[in-house]
Amino acid sequence: MNRRPIGQLTMIASGTLALVAASHAAPERGKVPLPRPRPVIHQPLQVFSTAPLAILPSTFTAKPVPAVAALAYTRPSAPLPVTPSDNTPASDIEIVKRTADLVRRDRFGEATSLKSSISDPLARKLVEWMILRGAANHSPGFERYAAFISENPSWPSVGLLRKRAEAALWDDERDGATVLAYFATTPPRSPKGSFALARALAARGDARGAERHVREAWQNEPFSAAIEGMVLDLFPGMLRPADHRVRMHRRLYAEDNEGGLRSAQRVGGDDLAIAKAWSAVNRKSKDAKALLDAVPKGARHSPGYVFSLARWLRRNGKTVEAAHVLLNAPRDVAEILVPDEWWIERRLVSRALIEAGQHQTAYRVARDATSPDKSNYRVDHEFTAGWIALRFLKDAATASRHFANITARSPTALARAGYWQGRAAEARGQTGEARSRYAAAARFRTTYYGQLAHARLGETDVALPAHPAASREQRTVLSQIEIVRALAIVYAAGERELAIPIVADVADRTSDAGALAAMADITQQNRDARATLLIGKAALNQGLAFAHYAFPVIGVPGYKPIGPDVDPSLLYSIVRQESAFNPKTISIANAMGLMQVTPAAGRSIAKKFGVGYDQKRLLNDTVYNVQMGAAELGDLIRDYRGSYLLALVGYNAGRGRVRDWIARYGDPRDPKVDPVDWVEMIPFSETRNYVQRILENVQVYRARFGATRPLTIEADLRRGTAEN
């Protein structure tokens, strides 16, 4: 266990925040490293044998479906059930449509009555699913949920239905025999399920089993103050101060400040002082520093206090002091509880230290993080440490070890690891090793770093694999899969919104390539780019050859430009990333529609290009939305001398951020600045990801639109330079 000495924390918290000495001489602040001159590597490719980056061809054989190239990490899934019926009468389709309307209006009794008049068993099942899924505020009863789950374990939203069944067990105070029978084969999936099971176990005399479920849910799960009170009344004496302390920490990590304070009050003493300070830091309250100082010195070793202090220091520009706190912070998972939150804080501090020229300290802050729980954070942890080691400390050997530690299932992460392993090998002068690493990364042709690796090898094609194509006989078999037919019924009834939860859930849970392809064909036939994208992305992330579906060429209307022309590949890439082809989406920043145009941007563009502004049309008129968004994007590209990179940053984060980041990191249009590093220096993870995703999309869409040499990602990163 690596605990921070109490005395050092006390010194920092008491107001004597001394500047911690840098670990080494600080180079020029802020600027990204210069690009390393390198020859294009043209020798014959040799594939290295590191398993995590390998692709293994396979053939799907569970049903007579087309051969699909898949990655080694494609997960197995249970066969999807086949429907006994062949078609659905038009009269049943009409009833499905009527019941969907009744469900939207919370008229579940009428919908249930109408269901009985449906002749097609699958259509009846679909309506029952609609009722159970739609009954958020009105429970149809435990028996209906349990029956549907038992008979249809592979149907969409079954996880949601399980939670509602468990809620019914708790809310209706069902008898112990019913509760125990339900949980005989499956563990609880919700707090109410855990408490219902605990109640049944306690009634049976199994106090130890009841306590285990109560304490586990109490420590780990979010639920309301009302349920907290019910649990405390029902299980008196079962919860200990340690349980309340753990709940306090978890709720405050989640920024549920009220929940955290309630738990702290049950413990009292120093924990309450820590919770008050932590809550104030979370809320960015003016009294946060005073509350931190008010925590007794003997309690300042608490992980909650240390975390809050580091966050407050970082937010108030005291980056070096925040780093000192983190470098002496506890790292044992049993103490810090939520390593993901600690990693986020360390990443923010580490990146700020890079900008301050404190590269060695930045590396240590990143390196010494407790391994996060979430896969994407684990990848980010190793990447950040490796990237700092390679590009700022010039330690390619150390960087290679970090990049080699990246183990993930997603093509994006695997390509990232392979590309940077290649860069590290180049830095060590190991050309053959570099080529092998680039070749492995380049297999992920739809990813940003896979494309950069491909370009590093001197290639200019994207070479998308052919999408699955089934024969007539295969299509007949696939059309009989229950969920495929259910999707067709949904479209026939005109209920496009219901298609989204169906395809999203099934695509996330199955690797049945044939079923996914059949569903994607239905969504494409119905011109539903949003649903097609959901299927394609999920399948692509499993390693299936679904780029054809993951990059739809439908969903963006034709329009008459009102501003500078925009490459259609870039336009589709923006829509894919901004709204995922959902014309009705509204962001928390009030950005609207396909291209997520804000009212402020809409007014500015309308004035600049002499067109009328109508905010309602941004959401209700897709042509108008694309006109305004394309004009804004084209205007940004023109203002930044053709730079896609800066235009994308401006579109996502605003022109002010572009000016700020050029001042801090250099101008990516400058040939002396490495644009790959410049993108990685972007301090907002959302904008960093946005730029990378758009640029990778552009390369794929060029291929989808028939370009002969679509891969120009390096040139796209450098657009606007004097050389370009």
How would you describe this protein?
The chain is an all-alpha fold. Among the domains are: 472-550, no CATH class; 568-717, Lysozyme (Orthogonal Bundle). The chain has 39 helices and no strands. The chain has helices at 6-13, 90-104, 108-115, 121-134, 142-151, 158-171, 176-182, 191-204, 207-220, 225-234, 241-253, 257-267, 270-282, 288-294, 303-315, 319-327, 333-336, 339-355, 359-367, 375-391, 396-404, 411-427, 431-442, 448-456, 472-479, 482-492, 496-509, 513-525, 529-541, 547-550, 568-578, 599-609, 615-620, 622-639, 644-653, 655-665, 675-681, 685-704, 713-717. Helix 16 packs across helix 18 (339-355) and helix 22 packs parallel to helix 24. The chain starts with 5 loop residues before the first helix and ends in a 7-residue tail after the last helix. The model is unreliable at 1-28 and 36-75 (pLDDT under 50).
